[in-house]
Design goal:
Blueprint: E1 2-5, H1 9-22, H2 34-39, E2 52-61, E3 64-74, H3 75-81, E4 85-93, H4 97-112, E5 118-121, E6 132-135, H5 151-158, E7 162-173, H6 182-195, E8 198-201, H7 207-221, H8 233-244, E9 252-256, E10 262-270, H9 273-276, H10 287-294, E11 300-308, H11 317-329, E12 335-342, H12 346-354, E13 358-369
Parallel strand pairs: 4-5, 11-12
Antiparallel strand pairs: 1-2, 2-3, 3-4, 5-13, 6-13, 7-12, 7-13, 8-9, 9-10, 10-11
């Protein structure tokens, strides 16, 4: 076995396309769009790369690729956290502990030479795609969510990586008879009256201004969250651009106070993985048509983000927004996946559990000292 560092466009394509080989016979895996995968490694499409230093590696046995890994630092994270933490990600490997150790050693050595003392992951170059699936390998992953083979967790643990954080996912399904509990209806009615809160849909004609509100609220309300780093303007613009063709106006809501100031928001994304599953990563010749006509008909959504500014936290505003989203999207077959919530975000987990949402998945992020 030998490691090869990515140095050419051809090597990069091999790195990106490896999961298509690894999971081609896995009925649960959803092939992402290749054009979007390649965009993650393109500075013009992914401005996060502007504050990363990274190396990509492939593991070969003879002429056969049997694994891959990325090692990288985020200069914004280093400055914001004030800790020498680096990342590994894009981990794929055959079920062989020697192969796994070689990949992880390579990532650790890459980080050490940059002065890093702790290695954390799996992490990616894309917001919100963190961790390994630990529980809940079925149903298929929702849009912008990771998927892996169960034995990957064993690989990381046997290397000495330990749990640093779990991320929890929940779901609600009208087909399974879900109804918003009466106590939540009464609570949110009272919250709306007491604080004069109104919930409205995103105004697509003012899209740039609405995006600015999302970024402002996020940077104020999530600053204390584990793993948070400030969102740059370029990153916000790129995310707004990428989501604009996918989001549905009734799935992006703002909560406003009596003066009309946005004090919270929720974003739910149609689960385009239900369409992508049969496209094998390609938009041509007819994939784009299936997406264009399929997205408005989707009834499965991922709740991608929710935030409430600090002065309104703990007042039931999150429950009010959840309720408004469910009512906005409601059909007899609506499915909402709340993906994800930090395991120790007790107020958010408590609010979700009071909504009678059911547990669905658990992701785990690992860390190890390499100093």
């Amino acid at each position: 076995m030998h490691i090869s560092i990515i140095q050419s466009k051809n090597d990069l394509n091999k790195f990106i396309e490896l999961p298509f080989q690894f999971y081609k016979n896995d009925p649960v895996w959803v092939p992402p769009l290749l054009i979007e995968l390649k965009a993650q490694f393109n500075f013009r499409r992914n401005p996060t790369l502007l504050h990363l230093e990274y190396e990509l590696f492939l593991l070969y046995e003879g002429d056969t690729i049997i694994g891959r890994i990325a090692a990288f630092i985020d200069t914004i994270a280093l400055e914001f956290w004030k800790e020498p933490i680096g990342f590994f990600g894009y981990y794929e490997c055959i079920d062989n502990l020697m192969a796994s150790k070689l990949l992880l050693d390579t990532a650790a050595n890459s980080l050490r030479k940059r002065g890093i003392k702790k290695m954390r992951g799996p992490w990616t170059f894309v917001s919100q795609e963190w961790g390994l699936v630990l529980e809940g390998f079925t149903p298929s992953p929702t849009v912008m969510a990771p998927y892996n083979r169960p034995y990957y967790n064993d690989h990381l643990k046997k290397y000495g990586l330990e749990k640093i954080k779990d991320l929890l996912c929940y779901y609600i399904s009208a087909q399974e008879g879900y109804k918003i509990p009466e106590r939540i209806l009464n609570l949110t009615d009272n919250v709306a009256r007491r604080y004069g809160i109104k919930v409205r849909r995103i105004e697509m004609k003012n899209y740039e201004q609405e995006v600015a509100s999302v970024v402002e609220i996020s940077n104020i309300s999530l600053i204390e969250n584990w793993g948070y780093t400030p969102v740059t303007k370029d990153e916000a613009d790129a995310m707004a651009r990428d989501l604009k063709s996918v989001i549905q106006p009734n799935a992006v809501l703002f909560a406003e106070d009596q003066s009309g100031k946005p004090i919270g928001f929720i974003i739910a994304i149609p689960d385009i993985n239900l369409i992508l599953k049969n496209l094998n990563g390609k938009l041509l010749p007819f994939g784009w048509v299936k997406l264009l006509y399929g997205i408005p008909r989707l009834r499965h959504y991922r709740i991608f983000a929710l935030a409430v500014i600090p002065e309104y936290q703990g007042k039931g505003i999150d429950s009010l927004i959840y309720r408004a989203l469910y009512e906005s999207l409601y059909t007899e077959d609506i499915w909402l996946e709340i993906n994800y919530v930090l395991e120790d975000n007790f107020p958010m987990n408590n609010a979700i559990q009071k909504l009678d949402a059911k547990p669905l998945r658990r992701y785990r992020i690992y860390e190890r000292s390499i100093g």
